[in-house]
Amino acid sequence: MRLLYRLFVWLYPKAAWLLSFYNPKAALWVKGRKHQFRKLHSVFHKNDRPVVWMHCSSLGEFEQGKPLLESIKQQYPHYFILVTFFSPSGYEIRKNDPVADHICYLPMDRPYTAQKFLNIVQPALVLFVKYEYWFYYLNEIKERNIPLLLISGVFREDQPFFKWYGTFYKKMLQCFTHLFVQNDSSFLLLKQIETEHKASISGDTRFDRVIQIAAGFSSFELIEQFCHQHPVIIAGSTWTEDDEALDHFVNHHPDIRFVIAPHDIDEDRLKECEKLYTHTIRYSMLKETKQVPENVHVLIMDNMGMLSSIYRYATIAYIGGGFGDDGIHNALEAAVFYKPIVFGPVYEKYTEAIELIEREGAFSIDDALELEEQLSILLKDPNLLKQTGQASGDYVQQKSGACNKIMDYIQANRLLTN
């Protein structure tokens, strides 16, 4: 397995380079890694502060780890905070986030790059968020006796850690000082491979993050102007399949205001949304004109970063991704605002989706007809609307506190010192 892994990390940058000629994301991935060690050295050669390094695969993992970084920053202000990303979709959106002193891409995982990176950064504490395990980085961190924590980990039976060929992957888990997992099932899987002695159930830091976002909400005047006392359905992180399920209902209900936030906002995808939905305006155009045309009832969000806050304006939230293989996106961003939630049939990987349905704070639908029926039922029954929203909001509040548990461990084990 190690040979296959070495082949993978050797081939991946070459494949990204070939794709970069016609794929914008691949181009960003390649461009972002140019001269990265030179840039790192220029940042760290004068640094005399101890370093906390957090690695995130993409945007979702960063949002998951951010409340922990904010707690560290508040309680240990003299520490230098470094955040690395693997994916451009995380880095490009959060590269200037003030929670960190420096944000950059993670150099590709190889023995010499891991050594070089750690020689420059010299972290006192390393945090990996949820998943994405890079063998040479993890092994080098362990060799140097640097404390290494997994934050909000999730494990499933189909992962290679739990297969007959999983010895190589199990070695990665042995590199961690402690594994903070989200739920009982993840802990029991670790017990199967005799790793539970370095694991504990902390819950999911995403609950803490969405509560932070809700508490720091500031109004969006243009969104309020667009919604203007109408029922509002916000469809977040939609893919083509979601929009095709929604378009008939949307186009036949001009009395409702719809906010569509596609998962990808490249021009082709935005034009596809404009073709599916009639009477639309893009948010960028609304910002220019500051007026909603008379016949428009669909707002297409063509920017990133606002969705988690504008769910506050929803009467009902539709969460995209449930018609694809990977499943739904973050339902908690809407649930924290006490909103009824609807999503497609693929959600089994996501504990919060399962539990929201069990608590009657969310509904799953199989197709466009069921979606239209469920939306109509909710809109016609104010009591059901209120009860469902209350259930989803209560669920988020009851699940908060993961960040405090991790901070308690850091302090009890003196992983950081004042």
Q: What is the CATH superfamily label of the largest domain?
A: 3-Deoxy-D-manno-octulosonic-acid transferase, N-terminal domain
Mean pLDDT: 94
Task: Please compute the radius of gyration using only Cα atoms.
Answer: 22 Å
Number of domains: 2
Largest sheet: 7 strands, parallel
Q: Helix share of residues?
A: 40-55%
CATH architecture of the largest domain: 3-Layer(aba) Sandwich
Total strand count, please? 14
What are the key terms here?
14 strands, globular, Rossmann fold, alpha/beta, seven-stranded parallel β-sheet, 418 residues, single chain, 2 domains
Strand and helix map with partners:
Layout: H1 2-19, H2 24-32, H3 36-44, E1 51-56, H4 59-75, E2 80-85, H5 88-94, E3 102-105, H6 111-121, E4 123-129, H7 135-143, E5 148-153, H8 167-174, E6 178-181, H9 184-192, E7 199-201, H10 205-215, H11 221-227, E8 232-238, H12 240-251, E9 257-262, H13 267-276, E10 280-282, H14 283-289, E11 298-300, H15 307-310, E12 316-319, H16 332-335, E13 341-343, H17 351-358, E14 362-364, H18 368-380, H19 382-398, H20 402-412
Parallel strand pairs: 1-2, 1-4, 2-3, 4-5, 5-6, 6-7, 8-9, 8-12, 9-11, 10-11, 12-13, 13-14
